[in-house]
Design brief:
The structure holds two protein chains of two kinds.
Chain A: H1 7-33, H2 43-48, E1 56-63, E2 69-70, E3 76-82, E4 87-93, E5 105-112, E6 118-126, H3 141-151
Parallel strand pairs in A: 4-6
Antiparallel strand pairs in A: 1-3, 1-5, 2-3, 3-4, 5-6
Chain B: H1 7-39, H2 53-80, H3 83-115, H4 123-147, H5 152-164, H6 167-177, E1 187-188, E2 191-192, H7 196-251
Antiparallel strand pairs in B: 1-2
Classes of the chains: A alpha+beta, B mainly alpha.
Chain lengths: ~150, ~250
């Protein structure tokens, strides 16, 4: 009787075992990186575990509607960043990116001031996953569909 | 499957497949790029910058697809000792690396006006850079193994190709697992957050680039096989002339 595996199958079992171990190791590593590999904190992270004032942190979230205000000096803006659960007021002096508008994502480098305001040194605009032509933005859905149907080659 | 193990049969197939893939890929890419660059509308927020999408996204897919090809071919090489698998993995590495580099360069150019920065160390960008370095390491290993002929050295390359594949799902999931500056996937199974006006040229571009990729891989496989044949012929000739010399030496 031949209980011995054919070399081909032996290699297959060996490779599959090695892959299972490898994927396990990778999952462990990713699990360990869970909190560390994020690019920024969201407002609810700041609310639940506030970093000490003065420590450099990165804050990301959505610019709340109606919250952008330009101060009297003309180059300082204040706005509120939220993630649906918590909000953080932010102050930034400098040129804002083109995509920095209310309701869109933003990532700010800076530190928490003693009064709870986040003072940003730099602002990055975050683009969301939606891509939409400019002309379609103000149209109703039916109008937009008609335009797309007209301008798309069959 | 073992029908394709025969290099002669593969070469017959590759002889007409290579130009077919290259030409149809070029035609599709040229058409879709012209559509995307000149006729497709501008984005509501990004403006004209959105057009880099038509090169960036297919390059990203093919950069990851290249390593997936390497991983599958490496598995077939390790388990079934299929000689063409070795050659396919070697052939896919360089175009994969080129597409990864194009993805990183175009992404950086897009990031400057859109995000306000050329580069950040977030999960998606970092894992994609790691993929490029993996390609460099793979190419170096493969060229070192080639000097020893296809054998034990090649097996090390195949194991590396298989181990490196762990990075591909990490790239794909990086925007889900970690907060990142890069946006989450716009196109997922059966759903797209990209307006059809952008989506169609993008998909045709991706198909065209994929055909080009396939054509380049086949062309490189043919070149590697031709190299082997030339080397084998030289070796035979050297052995024959050596044998002749020893026979002449014995009779003299």
């Amino acid at each position: 009787m031949s209980t011995a595996l054919k070399p081909k199958h032996q290699r297959l079992v060996l490779v599959i075992l090695a892959l299972v171990v490898l994927i396990g190791a990778a999952l462990l590593a990713i699990w360990g990186l869970r909190g560390q590999a994020s690019y920024f904190y969201v407002p609810s992270d700041i609310a639940s575990d506030p970093p000490e004032p003065g420590r450099a942190v990165r804050l990301g979230g959505m610019v709340q509607e109606g919250s952008i205000q330009t101060l009297a000096d003309g180059v300082t803006v204040t706005f509120v960043v939220g993630d649906g659960e918590a909000t953080v007021p932010v102050r930034y002096t400098g040129i804002t990116p083109d995509l920095f508008v209310e309701g869109s994502g933003v990532v700010a480098d800076g530190r928490l001031a003693a009064d709870g305001t986040f003072v940003a040194d730099s602002l990055l605009a975050k683009h969301d996953e939606n891509y939409m032509p400019r002309e379609l933005e103000d149209m109703s859905e039916a109008q937009a569909k008609a335009v797309v149907a007209e301008t798309t080659a069959k | 499957m073992h029908g394709f193990a025969n290099p002669a049969r593969f070469l017959r197939l590759a002889r007409w497949m290579t130009p077919l893939l290259l030409v149809s890929g070029l035609v599709l890419v040229a058409g879709a790029l012209a559509w995307g660059l000149f006729y497709a509308p501008a984005d509501r927020l990004m403006g004209e910058t959105v057009r880099i999408l038509y090169i960036h996204v297919p390059s990203a897919w093919l950069g990851m697809g290249g390593w997936t090809t390497i991983a599958i071919a490496s598995l077939v090489e390790l388990v079934w000792r299929h000689p063409l698998a070795t050659i396919a993995a070697r052939a896919a590495a360089l175009p994969g690396a080129v597409f990864t580099a194009i993805c990183l360069a175009t992404g950086s150019i897009w990031g400057r006006p859109t995000w306000g920065t050329w580069w950040v160390w977030d999960g998606r960008l970092t894992s994609m850079l790691v993929l490029l370095f993996l390609y460099f390491a793979y190419l170096a290993l493969a060229s070192a193994a080639q000097k020893d002929g296809i054998g034990a050295g090649s097996r090390v390359t195949a194991i590396f190709g298989l181990v490196g594949a762990i990075n591909v799902p990490i790239i794909n999931r990086s925007v889900v697992w970690w907060n990142s500056l890069h946006q989450p996937a716009s196109i997922t199974m059966g759903k797209s957050a990209i307006d059809p006006a952008f989506l169609w040229p993008l998909l045709i571009c991706a198909l065209g680039f994929s055909l080009l990729f396939g054509g380049v891989v086949l062309a490189r496989m043919r070149a590697i096989l031709a190299n082997f044949q030339a080397e084998a012929r030289l070796r035979r000739r050297a052995m024959a002339s050596e044998a002749l010399a020893s026979v002449e030496g014995a009779t003299a």
